[in-house]
């Protein structure tokens, strides 16, 4: 049955969300079985007729079922007598908690039955009889403690008074302590006379405060002894002892002395602490029973108690000995055994690094448990910190700033506070507080270098990274978060953002265009690093962007000039001696450095035994004389290759006509074109070309004069006559050659090469855009000199003038049209 009750109780706990209001019934204890407690059905709002159907029941946490319910009328009644003292002992509040349960639907009610105490228990003495042996010589006023009675009831129902049966020799003296517990002492009022009455029988009655009152009694039997008619007498009624709190355990602190005029055993005394001495005093002090020496059992502490009081009893060994009592007062003196105590009352979580002098950091209180004479405490903070200690009130101090604070130098200070008392020897206490320093924006960004140099190979991909900048800011968070930006400036009249951009967060620079070394080989960019503080700080640095040359231009053959596609016509006398200079092939390469270093090679000659070629100069020489069997039509194929990686090349074919004329005549024919091999069409073309070139030459001189005049006025750049707003000028580069897709890496030992190998011949030609053609791949060369047809320096082919109009060229550099002037000399 008990097991089922436990299971039911657990179920009721789990459905505690269905608990409804509480009902409380106050009832007195000791009610008879069946006594009315309350109409629980009415109080809970339940229908009496449905109690059984809804399985109404009461569950108690106790094993006993003290209460029951009448299902016919809903009355809660006493099922078993309730003893409050057995149920709750002597606690003031005694509540019996019940759980009322109904099902269908399930509801849970809490019922509390308050058990009220009734005065149902009388006071009871531990012993029914208390014996005293008192000498007839006992002096009036002698006191004898009596045993206390016990009452299990609580409150006012417990023991409140004692009463002694009438006696002419004894009276009762009642005393109560702080807890209102009453104790009784038997006081001798008149001297005893054993011969008149050897035994006195008294009745001690203990009375409680209930209504009606109950009482209990015990018998007091007093036996009067004879002969030993002298009591011990102490030298002092009150002994006053002063000891220091650091007295070692076992030390003798006092010697109590009493005398008894009787002889023998009646005069031999035994010392002891009286029954009225508190237990904590007995724990600290003890007395030798034979000689009255008081020793200390444990170390005493002035800070816990400064005074102790004990009662010493001296009793002789004779029959019916009468004890004598004296007071012993022990005063504890202070020694400096407590160091000062430092208590932080408030500490700032952090202080800004620009805090002014006197800014509050922490507040602390200093106490010392020792006596006031030693409570004078001196405090100071550790050295070499920008803080000091101010005294605001008694025992209160404040830590304030006292100097400049720099978070970047010291992000956190550990301030050690030392307090020392004035005792002997003095005692000290250290307290360390950590003071974090909060950041302010007091540092400007600093670049890791005074200047940056970045290298990028021409023909780079647009958007490619060309390098990165780095700057540092020792400030924290927003104050140290940097953003990079490019300052507005011009490079050859074009805004810098047209060329490069920078990632504001990482400092990585990107190319905004594909660079051409032949147009621009370096430029400067000013970059700003700015923090996000308030107010913000910034710094600047110059970035030198150097464009590296790539072998993206093939050699351009300048001479000999071809007049029919890629075939050039040359003549030589058949009678030429070995070593005769047949022709000199001249080429140029707009790249720089090794990419413009040219090599000449003779390929596919009609007869390999007839000709040889100098790889460095491009000169073709005869090896032997022409024989009768040698062909008068020789074809020479010359390949011009640069020294780039990979190498690029151009080819020219030369049709060599061998004539049976002397050397001087052959030279005149080759130069003037007046001999038989020149056809009338060729003469006509030469005349037209000569006239056209002469006209263009005059125009070029006029343009050059205009440019020189503009340059004297401080114009920037070199602008051609066709009105271009932006152009570059280089003496050693050609424009209009289509780029190759060659890419190469920057060598570790790279040094920029600004000089290139010069060509023995120099030409003078103009590069200008046409008015109606968007040609980007071709440039037309206008040679000034005798027999100067125009050539395409992209392919090296000869272009003849048509319709009497001069051809123009066009090139684009960063969306700007450029005109270039190059000087070439023809031998």
Layout of strands and helices, then pairs:
Blueprint: H1 2-14, E1 19-28, E2 36-39, H2 40-43, E3 57-60, E4 67-70, E5 75-78, H3 84-88, E6 95-102, E7 107-116, E8 124-125, E9 129-135, E10 143-145, E11 149-150, E12 159-164, E13 170-176, E14 182-188, E15 199-208, E16 215-225, E17 233-234, E18 238-244, E19 252-255, E20 258-259, E21 269-273, H4 279-284, E22 285-287, E23 293-296, E24 307-316, E25 324-333, E26 341-347, E27 351-352, E28 360-367, E29 377-381, E30 387-393, E31 396-401, E32 412-421, E33 428-438, E34 446-447, E35 451-457, E36 465-468, E37 471-472, H5 477-480, E38 482-486, E39 490-491, E40 494-495, E41 500-502, E42 508-511, E43 522-531, E44 538-548, E45 556-559, E46 562-564, E47 567-573, E48 581-584, E49 586-588, E50 598-603, E51 611-613, E52 619-622, E53 633-642, E54 649-659, H6 663-672, H7 680-712, E55 765-767, E56 780-781, E57 790-792, E58 797-799, E59 812-813, E60 816-817, E61 820-822
Parallel strand pairs: 1-7, 9-16, 18-25, 27-33, 35-44, 47-54
Antiparallel strand pairs: 2-5, 3-6, 4-5, 6-7, 8-11, 10-14, 12-15, 13-14, 15-16, 17-20, 19-23, 21-24, 22-23, 24-25, 26-28, 28-31, 29-32, 30-31, 32-33, 34-37, 36-42, 38-43, 39-40, 41-42, 43-44, 45-49, 46-47, 48-52, 50-53, 51-52, 53-54, 55-61, 56-57, 57-58, 59-60
């Amino acid at each position: 049955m008990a097991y089922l009750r436990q299971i039911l109780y657990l179920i009721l706990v789990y459905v505690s969300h269905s608990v409804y209001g509480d009902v409380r019934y106050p009832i007195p204890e000791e009610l008879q079985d069946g006594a009315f407690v309350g109409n629980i059905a009415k109080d809970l709002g339940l229908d009496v007729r449905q109690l059984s159907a809804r399985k109404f029941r009461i569950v108690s946490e106790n094993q006993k079922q003290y209460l029951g319910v009448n299902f016919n009328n809903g009355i809660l009644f006493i099922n078993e007598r309730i003893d409050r003292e057995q149920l709750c002992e002597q606690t003031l509040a005694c509540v019996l908690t019940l759980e009322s349960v109904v099902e269908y639907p399930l509801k849970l009610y809490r019922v509390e039955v308050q058990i009220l105490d009734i005065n149902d228990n009388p006071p009871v003495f531990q012993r029914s009889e208390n014996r005293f042996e008192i000498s007839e010589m006992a002096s009036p006023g002698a006191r004898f403690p009596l045993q206390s009675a016990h009452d299990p009831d609580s409150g006012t129902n417990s023991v409140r008074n004692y009463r002694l049966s009438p006696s002419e020799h004894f009276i009762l003296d009642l005393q109560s302590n702080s807890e209102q517990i009453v104790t009784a002492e038997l006081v001798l009022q008149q001297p005893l006379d054993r011969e008149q009455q050897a035994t006195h029988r008294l009745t001690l009655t203990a009375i409680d405060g209930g209504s009606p009152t109950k009482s209990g009694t015990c018998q007091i039997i007093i036996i009067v002894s004879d002969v030993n008619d002298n009591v011990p007498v102490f030298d002092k009624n009150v002994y006053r002892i002063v000891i220091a709190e650091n007295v070692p355990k076992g030390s003798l602190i006092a010697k109590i002395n009493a005398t008894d005029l009787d002889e023998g055993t009646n005069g031999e005394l035994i010392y002891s602490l009286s029954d009225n001495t508190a237990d904590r005093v007995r724990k600290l002090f003890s007395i030798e029973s034979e000689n009255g020496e008081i020793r200390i059992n444990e170390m005493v502490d002035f800070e816990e108690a400064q005074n102790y009081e004990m009662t010493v009893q001296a009793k002789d060994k004779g029959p019916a000995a009468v004890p004598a009592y004296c007071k012993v007062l022990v005063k504890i003196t202070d020694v400096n055994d407590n160091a000062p105590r430092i208590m932080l009352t408030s500490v700032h979580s952090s202080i800004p690094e620009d805090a002014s002098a006197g800014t509050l950091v922490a507040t602390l209180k200093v106490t010392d448990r020792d006596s006031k004479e030693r409570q004078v405490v001196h405090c100071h903070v550790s050295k070499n910190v920008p803080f000091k200690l101010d005294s605001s009130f008694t025992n209160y101090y404040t830590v304030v700033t006292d100097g400049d604070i720099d978070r970047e130098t010291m992000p956190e200070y550990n301030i050690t506070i030392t307090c020392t008392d004035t005792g002997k020897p003095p005692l000290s206490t250290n307290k360390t507080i950590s003071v974090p320093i909060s950041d302010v924006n007091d540092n400007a960004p600093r670049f890791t270098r005074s200047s940056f140099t970045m290298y990028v190979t021409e023909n780079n991909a647009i958007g490619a990274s060309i390098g990165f900048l780095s700057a540092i800011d020792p400030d924290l968070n927003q104050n140290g978060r940097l953003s990079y930006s490019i300052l507005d400036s011009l490079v050859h009249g074009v805004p810098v953002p047209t060329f490069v951009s920078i990632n504001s967060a990482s400092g990585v620079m990107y190319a905004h265009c594909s660079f051409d070394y032949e147009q621009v080989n370096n430029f400067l960019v000013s970059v700003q690093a700015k923090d996000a503080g308030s107010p913000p700080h910034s710094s600047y640095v110059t970035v030198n962007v150097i464009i590296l040359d790539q072998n993206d231009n093939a050699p351009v053959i300048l001479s000999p000039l071809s007049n029919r596609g890629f075939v050039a016509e040359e003549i030589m006398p058949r009678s030429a001696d070995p070593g005769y200079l047949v022709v000199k092939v001249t080429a140029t390469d707009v790249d720089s450095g090794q990419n413009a270093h040219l090599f000449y090679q003779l390929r596919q000659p009609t007869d390999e035994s007839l000709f040889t070629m100098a790889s460095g100069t491009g000169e073709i020489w005869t090896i032997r004389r022409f024989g009768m069997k040698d062909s008068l039509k020789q074809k020479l194929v010359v390949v011009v290759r640069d020294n780039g990686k990979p190498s690029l090349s151009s080819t020219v074919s030369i049709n060599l006509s061998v004539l049976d004329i002397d050397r001087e005549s052959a030279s005149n024919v080759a130069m003037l074109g007046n001999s038989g091999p020149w056809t009338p069409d060729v003469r006509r073309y030469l005349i037209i070309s000569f006239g056209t070139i002469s006209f263009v030459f005059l125009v070029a001189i006029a343009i050059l004069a205009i440019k020189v005049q503009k340059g004297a006025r401080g114009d920037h750049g070199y602008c051609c006559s066709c009105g271009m707003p932006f152009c570059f000028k280089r003496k050693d580069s050609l424009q209009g050659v289509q780029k190759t897709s060659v890419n190469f890496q920057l060598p570790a030992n790279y040094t920029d090469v600004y000089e290139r190998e010069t060509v023995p011949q120099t030409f003078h030609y103009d590069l200008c855009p046409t008015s109606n053609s968007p040609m980007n791949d071709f440039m037309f060369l206008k040679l000034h000199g005798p027999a100067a047809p125009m050539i395409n320096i992209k392919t090296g082919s000869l272009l003849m003038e048509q319709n009497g109009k001069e051809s123009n060229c066009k090139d684009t550099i960063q969306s700007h049209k450029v005109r270039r002037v190059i000087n070439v000399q023809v031998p």
